[in-house]
Design the sequence.
């Protein structure tokens, strides 16, 4: 102690360290610290230039600061781990949450058919993000509605994760950002960060 919390930020470059040539003072940047560094909630923070990407012009600083971890988690889960492709069917759990909202939009952008779970209060919101079908998880069991999906992307864990195995087609992929307790070959991960990966997600936000 004291500790300044926070991993994500968006702002302008105020000063450059010795030898930095790949950026200029005043330029807009968005980034996330790695898991072993905090400090993004301060008025000023120090960041490696390799960890900073240009802020999308279509997003203001407030929204850009809330984007990196959720967007990276979504991209690495659906694209890098699951290999989601156009025409495939994906089930997204927790679709109204911080990661789920990105997952629905990215899956739709990739050309997949999107089925999502959410509470009754968020059904219309999730549809507005691009979901083809939204299931009220309190009113019906998703496995009674969904069959033979290519990918399940889970942000809930627990019983929801365990029940999701039954809806996969042969050779389907289940990716979770929540804990798995039974030792099955679930693809669970912590998102990695770099200026390249942030720039790729920034491009998606600008052009999606």
Sequence:
């Amino acid at each position: 102690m004291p500790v300044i919390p926070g991993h994500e930020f968006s702002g302008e470059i105020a000063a450059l360290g010795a030898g930095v040539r790949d950026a200029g003072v005043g330029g807009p940047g968005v980034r996330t610290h790695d898991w072993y560094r905090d400090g993004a909630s301060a008025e000023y923070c120090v960041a490696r230039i390799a960890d900073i990407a240009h802020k999308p012009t279509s997003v203001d600083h407030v929204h850009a600061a809330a984007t990196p971890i959720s967007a990276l988690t979504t991209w690495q889960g659906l694209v890098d781990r699951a290999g989601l492709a156009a025409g495939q069917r994906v089930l997204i759990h927790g679709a109204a949450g911080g990661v789920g909202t990105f997952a629905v939009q990215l899956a739709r952008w990739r050309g997949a058919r999107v089925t999502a779970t959410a509470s009754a209060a968020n059904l219309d919101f999730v549809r507005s993000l691009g979901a083809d079908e939204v299931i009220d998880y309190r009113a019906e069991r998703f496995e009674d509605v969904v069959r033979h999906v290519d990918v399940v992307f889970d942000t809930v864990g627990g019983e929801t994760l365990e029940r999701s195995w039954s809806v996969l087609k042969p050779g389907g992929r289940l990716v979770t950002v929540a804990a798995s307790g039974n030792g099955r070959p679930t693809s669970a991960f912590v998102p990695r960060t770099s200026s390249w990966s942030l720039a790729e997600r920034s491009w998606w936000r600008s052009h999606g």
About this structure: The first strand starts at residue 8 and ends at 12. Confidence is low (pLDDT under 50) at residues 188-208. Strands lie at 8-12, 28-32, 52-53, 89-92, 113-118, 133-136, 149-154, 168-176, 187-188.
